[in-house]
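Aim 2, interim progress: modelling of the adenosine-5'-diphosphate-bound target.
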Amino acid sequence: MKTNADTYNPLTTFADLPVSERLGRAVAEQGWDAPTPIQALALPELLRGEDVVGLAQTGSGKTAAFSIPLIEALDPKTKGIQALVLVPTRELAAQVAAEITSLSRHAPVRPIVLCGGVSIGPQIKALRNRSAGLVVGTPGRILDHLQRGTLQLGTVRYLVLDEADRMLDMGFAPDVGRILSHTPDERQTALFSATMPGTIQGMVERHMRSPHRLTVEAEAPTVDTVEQLYYRVDGRDKTRALRTLIDAAEEPRVVVFRRTKHGATKLHRQLERDGYRSGLLHGGKTQSQRDKTLAAFAGGRTRILVATNVAARGLDIPDVSHVVNYDLPEDADTYVHRIGRTARAGREGVAVTLLGDSERKEFDKIRRSLPAKVHESSLPLSA
Ligand code: ADP
Ligand code: MG
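Predicted structure of the complex, ligand included:
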């Protein structure tokens, strides 16, 4: 695999990119001054048609890094699905589709979003009716369409796995493998994530043609504008600690992570009972509930979002002030993705882990594999 040293291209402005005038205009209208480092590395490679594994911090603009070349790759004269973007959650599918729509505003490509939780009829209609060129979706529903024969992927030329390590882990790998077997071998493939454990290297190579591995060298996979703290709440009430933290924050916009749906539901109920309006996001909710909850939080109508890991990957909600690990994340990579919901695109944020007695050993293990320091702190006021 080639590395940065072979391919480094110090792209300093978007204007240097070999893209169509219409796309260049749309990029300019995003109000972005310059490409982010991963965009500077990946855009020239992808626009040349190379396969890329892009590894860069949370919130560093990976979506546009794969979306700009994707839009350029679409040929309006060709029929059939030309590009496929696979993501782990429905919310992320919607977000990626929205970014592609925004970037292609002068040459609309209208992605079709294929996710579960909503009825399949309209999706089938969309696939049949439109000269559909691009699908963004989650593996389960895409497989469903493949099995029904309502989706054909034999004409795909550009494939993206966003949150690639998640897409290739045990939970998703079989489905993703099946989906990819419906696509031609002769295709361009892009994998992006903030974390890429060595254990999936074999998988990566199986799906790609001598990919260029592009890594934005950084000390940590999370940006250093996240202040990382932990509070020991030994023998104390974590919910009370959380309330104290929220009370002390000036304009809190807090994502609180719990491991289970049950735990999230319970905490949400407690907070509401105590007068803290909050949203609840987990995989057991209907899609319309999930959409409403996320919209209310993104729009600032609720300032607290209690969620399971369904919200840990990829979501780009501006101005999240705090991420709170109410329950410990399962591993260091999950920690990285969870706290990456704050401090996006150069902003600042605080990540707080509430540490109970019994969790210390497990947390030490996580901390040891994090390059950045997590500092012990005490709760504001006296909790
Ligand atoms: P990642 O996928 O790396 O976590 P996203 O693609 O979600 O990050 O982008 C994070 C935020 O950065 C988004 O709000 C996006 O609009 C913004 N962004 C993307 N590219 C740029 C850029 N070149 N300059 C400034 N902001 C950008
Ligand atoms: Mg992303």
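The chain is about 35% helix and 15% strand. Residues 159 and 189 are 5 Å apart (CA to CA).
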